[in-house]
Amino acid sequence: MSGFQRYKKILDLFSEDRISWTVSEISNELKTPSSTIYRIVREMVVAEFLESAAGSYFRLGPAFIKYNRTINLSDPLIRAGQPFLEKLASENPIVSVNVLARLYGNKVMCVADYKSPFFKNNTSYQKGKLMPLIYGATSRAIIMQITGRRLDELINSEKFFSVDEKNSFLEGLKVDRKKGYCFTQGQVDKGLIGFAVSISNKKLGIEASLSSIFNSSDFLLEHEPIIYANLTSYGLLVEKYINEIFNDIQNYHHKPN
Amino acid sequence: MSGFQRYKKILDLFSEDRISWTVSEISNELKTPSSTIYRIVREMVVAEFLESAAGSYFRLGPAFIKYNRTINLSDPLIRAGQPFLEKLASENPIVSVNVLARLYGNKVMCVADYKSPFFKNNTSYQKGKLMPLIYGATSRAIIMQITGRRLDELINSEKFFSVDEKNSFLEGLKVDRKKGYCFTQGQVDKGLIGFAVSISNKKLGIEASLSSIFNSSDFLLEHEPIIYANLTSYGLLVEKYINEIFNDIQNYHHKPN
DNA sequence: TCTTTAATTATCATTAAATGATAAATTTTA
DNA sequence: TAAAATTTATCATTTAATGATAATTAAAGA
């Protein structure tokens, strides 16, 4: 354990399922002497990346709230896409959750979302939550834009039930690529269906998706063309804005002093 | 530059005003050879704390979105207070921005907020933004619960125009402490007024505030008792829930395996 | 396209810091 | 108040970070 990993391994212990750890628990988990962990934890507490809680427990610190704000102001996908999510929701024919998602390691992460006021169910897509790579329209619209060796590597990180399942998944991707959008039913959350389009920008290395998620009970076949039209047009709009942001940044940096 | 500081110094370069940096810019800024910076930046890119943007620039990475989610699920102040902000807004007599804030180093940081649907103005209080310690009701309700040496240290980190200003500030705190709430007018944003109460929990080390911010043009004197009653009752409610969360955590950790 | 320049990675001797066993101090619990 | 648990301090040893330089790769210009 060295370099930044030393710190990250500790931070990664803190999760939804385990929000606080003591030094001795960390020490056991990472098989590292507690004198070492104490030193590292103290450093991170000073930096507000960790915070001491009651009973000798520690939890993540408020620094992440601060950095998260800066991310929201600097990530071109979020900057370009966030403002359109509410509009997309209001133009959908039925109540929806609308999501911007992107790759995060071998997983997919939602980075922005907007839920229509009267949408009842909870979706698994929540800002900052990692989701499976191969299930759900949101994820499909991301991997369907990836090809060649990178696709292989990503796919190989997933466990398929059988070779057949894997092949039919890859075939499905080809079909979706031609159609230009993805549709899935209950793959992530039962009772929900998802539609998604790809969002990409080669220069900025953006591989993302824009998706709308509905209650399957609300959905009628006649809704599909409208949903598809909305996603497609807003998808293009987001890509256009990403491009504008890219140009803005270029100009900004090339300004003479 | 050593330990965690080495990484934090780089992360802290990224801000609202300067969202992306090149390695050579970082190298100049921190007076550290670029070969060293390259190595460190590469580590943080792998960890998704940084991300490469176009034109050899880097920006903050999506890891912060993930950790921010975990914070929202684990911070007792946010967990206890967030659910009440919308209710507080709906019970206020005029449109408002409602904020949970806490200490962050020598500054105050908003950690959760809710704006009524038709509130027009922008407040400076945004989730994750650092705000001055001595201006605005939101901040006052935090420092007014701090006394003795810690108060001195915090106050001394601030620049007052004069000794008089400092003394009258400290006198004002005493008055507010007796009143049990704070009121300020245009100290942070012109045209806005703020009311705030303290939120605290000794066992959990929480020093925070709950505040409502209004357009001064909307405000009538007859609103004050209602605003005050709302803040006080919701403040107590939040403190009660913080306590319950504290007990939950205690029970959870003391469960037999 | 080729050429030039800039960006990034690799190498490695030197320097500096992290480690972890132990002891001491502090805080919490019984 | 005593005992136990938590946290900090110390320091010889181990290990990793540093930064000058060279090599490679990618981007920008001609």
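The mean pLDDT of chain B is 93.
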